[in-house]
Specification:
32% helix, GMP Synthetase, Chain A, domain 3, seven-stranded mixed sheet, alpha/beta, binds 5'-O-[(S)-ethoxy(hydroxy)phosphoryl]adenosine
Length: 635
């Protein structure tokens, strides 16, 4: 029986039961077999329930880049580690071997050191999907600096918030980026952000678009000349298993985004293990995850998971629609991709286009398909299965989160019978449960409740950077001794899980998590706005879209509503980024509120979703009459 190449449902259950019965033995075997440790652990795991401090492989020493790069050099030195596929299809793809990756990462690491970066320092990385994004992340890990990657679609304001919260000493960026036909002035955004980031001492600028950019003397440095003169070797820093590896921000339902903190040892073990298991990875497979490395999916399954297995991983700079809607399938055919991992929102957008875009290409290299980020609807699932997998490549609907570090609930391809829209069964080592309104675990099947995890796993986030209290409050206070996911789920009569969506004030738009509070705060900054509330409603492509209810101050009433809508969206664009665009903005005279003044989002959500026949009891509202008015004026 292998923990990895599970061959049947029966074997899955054997492995799963072992992982629950003897978790320490289970994880110890995996950690022992597959990684290089500089020093062995003193204990496998340790969970202090009171303070919610979790440790895995404590006492062990390692460097994750040694596991992701150095140890492959002898046997896989010339093997391609990363295939870089550029935005423009006429530009040649780059095949970066493990040996070449080693050199690039070492040189980058030496540049970081030269600029005064040391173990424990935070480095913000704001780069498009170019090879320097991969090498900068790995260079940080090489010297023990904590990387904080910010998705390069975020605005200056969002970038500054994330830099300041983690007090980054350095920022790595590029002159610009290519996205389809667009050229984006990243350095301009950076310059604006840095006006309010006092901790940043130096900025490294990779050249991608070769646009003319402003360079601030003494602060900004072109990266390439520094790399060219850097020494080609750099010993990996010895890291404790529980030393921080990275911070990655995710939206909270209120306030600042949460800087989820991940540590080296457990994260490495779990991402490597799940990569191999969930995608049934075999030597010489070509793995392509279309996420951006700015999100957890890219961290875990473009970089760390695949590289820890010595795999070949594709990094795609472009977008699915450029130069036409066949681009993904073109790339897939060109590189003979065996595992393809994407988001339901992308599948829905692709499915809307003519099938001829798919039919032009040979997709028979595919063995496994994956989805992540939001619930997949049945129609999209079938389109993916029939037209992309062509019935031969099982779909893994993988449920997990920035906080969980790796995939938690997912079918094992060829073993777990897939049912569309079901993430199915927990991976070995993962113990999910469903909780009822009274805070009790619902035993037996079927069941419907709030999804929690009742036992620690190696890659769980250890804290929220700088705010452990918030970590406990968000994830552990709602249910005693359990990690609360923020998601609702149902479990069918066979024990399969289906994720039904967020049960908190987070809305997932095109697979991106957005908290309602920061968006409302931004709307309220408009001088004509008195108050606002946003909710999600179903959208054909994005999964959800944002519906805003806005009360204007008297001064705003007289102004042209379309202009106001544009101005509000412009603010959103500047403060958060284009992903938070408000699809609909309804101006209203009031918002339904409870007697204690809390906005009843539940009612607003129903109105936005056209479910007005089922509003529930509105009599306890402070202002029940407003409900009818909002319905009458709905967009
Ligand atoms: C949602 C992405 C349904 C869920 C890795 C979760 C999903 C949030 C699925 C985390 C799935 C992720 N089915 N919903 N297969 N995968 N989600 O942090 O609501 O960007 O809580 O991590 O996405 O999003 P995050």
């Amino acid at each position: 029986m292998s923990q990895y190449h599970i061959k049947s449902l029966e074997e899955y259950f054997q492995v799963y039961h072992k992982s629950v019965r003897e978790p320490e033995i289970f994880w110890e075997e995996i950690a022992e077999e597959n990684f290089v440790w500089k020093k062995r652990w003193d204990s496998i795991f340790d969970w202090d329930m009171k303070s919610h401090k979790v440790k895995w492989f404590d006492g062990a020493q390692l460097n994750i880049t040694e596991n992701c790069i150095d140890r492959h050099l002898e046997t896989r030195g010339n093997k391609t580690a990363i295939i870089f596929e550029p935005n423009d299809p006429s530009e040649k793809a780059q095949h970066i071997s493990y040996r070449e990756l080693h050199r690039r990462v070492c040189q980058f690491a030496n540049v970081l050191k030269d600029k005064g970066i040391q173990k424990g320092d935070r480095v913000c990385i704001y780069l498009p999907m170019i090879p320097q994004l991969a090498t900068s992340i790995l260079a940080c890990a090489r010297i023990g600096a904590i990387h904080n990657v910010v998705f390069a679609g975020f605005s200056a304001n969002a970038l500054a918030t994330r830099i300041n919260d983690s007090e980054c000493k350095m920022l790595i960026t590029s002159d610009g980026s290519f996205r389809g036909e667009k050229v984006i002035d990243l350095k301009g955004i950076v310059d604006e952000a840095l006006l309010s980031c006092p901790t940043v001492e130096s900025v490294l600028v990779a050249q991608r678009t070769y646009a003319k950019v402003k360079m601030q003397k003494g602060r900004d440095f072109l990266l390439q000349p520094l790399l060219n003169s850097a020494y080609k070797d750099c010993d990996p820093e010895v890291m404790g298993a529980e030393d921080p590896l990275f911070i990655l921000y995710t939206s909270g339902s209120t306030g600042l985004p949460k800087g989820m903190l991940h540590t080296a040892g457990g994260y490495m073990v779990y991402t490597a293990y799940t990569f191999k298991n969930v995608f049934q990875y075999q030597e010489n497979d070509i793995f392509w995850c279309t996420a951006d490395i700015g999100w957890i999916t890219g961290h875990s399954y473009i970089l760390y998971g695949p590289l820890a297995n010595g795999a070949t991983t594709v990094m795609f700079e472009g977008v699915p629609s450029y130069p036409d809607w066949g681009r993904f399938w073109h790339v897939l055919e060109k590189h003979k991709v065996t595992q393809f991992y994407t988001a339901p929102t992308v599948i829905r957008a692709l499915a809307k286009e003519n099938l001829s875009f798919v039919e032009e290409y040979d997709l028979t290299s595919l063995k496994v398909l994956g989805t992540v980020g939001e619930p997949i609807n049945e129609e999209a699932w079938h389109w993916y299965n029939d037209n992309i997998g062509q019935g031969n490549a099982p779909i893994v609907d993988t449920w997990w989160q920035t906080e969980t570090g790796g995939i938690m609930i997912s079918p094992i391809p060829f073993s777990t019978p897939a049912i569309p829209t079901f993430a199915t069964l927990p991976l070995p080592g993962i113990q999910p449960c469903l909780m009822n309104e009274q805070g009790l675990e619902i035993k037996g099947n079927p069941a419907n409740g709030k999804l929690c995890i009742k036992f620690p796993w190696p890659s769980m986030a250890r804290s929220i950077w700088g705010n452990h209290e918030r970590f406990i409050e968000t994830y552990f206070a709602p249910f005693e001794n359990k990690y609360f996911t923020g998601d609702g789920a149902l479990r069918d009569h066979t024990g399969y899980y289906r994720i039904t969506g967020r049960v908190d004030d987070i809305i997932i738009i095109s697979g991106h998590n957005l908290g309602t509070a920061p968006i409302e705060d931004t709307i309220n900054e408009h001088p004509a706005v008195a108050e606002s509330a946003i909710v999600g409603y179903p959208h054909e492509i994005k999964g959800n879209a944002l519906y805003a209810y806005v009360i204007l101050k008297e001064s705003g009433e007289t102004r042209n509503h379309d202009n106001l809508r544009n101005e509000i969206n412009q603010l959103i664009n500047e403060h958060i980024g284009p992903i938070a665009k408000l699809e609909k903005i309804q101006f209203t005279n009031g918002l339904p509120k409870t007697r204690s003044g809390k906005i009843m989002r539940r009612i607003l959500r129903k109105i936005a979703c056209d479910e007005v026949s089922d509003l529930g009891d509105t009599s306890t509202l402070l202002n029940p009459e407003i409900v009818e008015e909002i319905i009458q004026q709905k967009l």
